[in-house]
From TrEMBL:
Pfam families with a match to the protein in the record: AA_permease_2
Species whose genome carries this gene: Paenibacillus pseudetheri
Keyword Phosphoprotein: no
UniProt keyword Cytoplasm, yes or no: no
Gene: gadC_2
This protein's name: Glutamate/gamma-aminobutyrate antiporter
Amino acid sequence: MANSKKLSLFGLIGITMAFFGTVRSVPTLSITGWTQIFYMLVAALLFALPIALISAELSTGFPQEGGPQVWVKNGLGEKWGFVTSWLLWVQMFFGMVMVSSTVGVLFGYVINVPKLSSNNYFIFVVILISFWGVTLLNLKFDMVKIAGNWGAIIGVYIPFIFLVILGVIYLFKNGIQPESYLGNFKASDLLPNLGDLGSLAYLSGIIFIFAGVEISSVHANFIENPKRNYPIAVIASVILLVIFNIVAGLTVSNAVPKGKMELSNITQPYLIFCHNLGIPSIFVNIISAMILIGVLVQLSAWVLGPSKSMIKVADEGNLPPFFQKRTSKNIPITFVMIQAIVISMVSVLYIVVPDVNSAFFIMTITTTILYCIVYLLISISAIRLRYKMPQVERPFRLGKGNGLMWFVSLLSLLSVVLTLVVSLIPPSILDPSQHTGYIIFQVAATIVMVGVALIIYKMKRPSWKKEE
């Protein structure tokens, strides 16, 4: 391949930053106050960096389409490869409910009726309309091609830049607010309060910022000099993301009064900043509309992305022929319709759980748990493949021997296990009466999602394989 077609170091940093740059996670970061600095560093150093580096070696050594499913299949066998692809599909059932819920919150501000943003029934209806809407549009048009690039610029980059700029101006004008999440600073605020275990659950929500970090590794094959440039790009991207998120997170922590943070409402800090700085309120309506566009574009990307991976798995004979159906435009119709139906069912949680904040956070944690199981399988596969397939050429390789791979993989496994443990601690925003229900929901959701995959694999028949 000619160098002109290869990705530059700065190009890869840009792509990686684009993937993780989102204003949606800022309130989850901000609610932890000064502790967010510690949580963000833990998430970046113990979680994001090890998984990104492992994924880079695996994606350059096993460049076939399919990514994690191919790596785990080669490392641990077909069964666990299927479980990997299944979990990457079903995690979106919870993740997309969480993302869709922000559509309802934002829409309330776009039309100047903010009280709708905390109305559970309104949020539930908007989840149904928005997800079914983007699903039906994607059956007819290639929405990612139509809206992809400008959707990210309008809905992600511009709002994030404005959030940081307004937050910094607010901080310079007003200083640290005593009644905010940053008020009355003590050195102990920089570390988690182990006396309040419920606050540890936020680490899981912050780690979710980096969920999907393995996806940028697909570009490792196309970068100039991957051995040198890929780790530089990953480390630089993670450092920049940590800095931008912490600046945004701390300025929002400083603006929102303690105990008043709305996790699913990214419009809240813009309202406070604009009111304080004398910026007309129509700016908030415009920013809300822009973020709304970004969320809908993101939903569009997720409607077809995981489904296209799953239909390849179905064609290999891991699922019955019913799942192998495509439309005339080659869209995996069965998967697309199943996910829309299940997402509609999961969104009922917004009616069952009276507090929109709590429902949003529960969905975030469930998605993180399912992602963590995938990362557990990827990390084990990475070590296994060093011994099982040592002859495979790896353009990007962690160390000459196996020592560095063992170290990075064990670091990744440690962070994943830590995340799974803190994910089962009921968060402090939940009422104590909901604690048992929270634990039961997370354990049951995980067991059901993994269990269904194992049962389907056990039932598989040779006749399921699609004929060429």
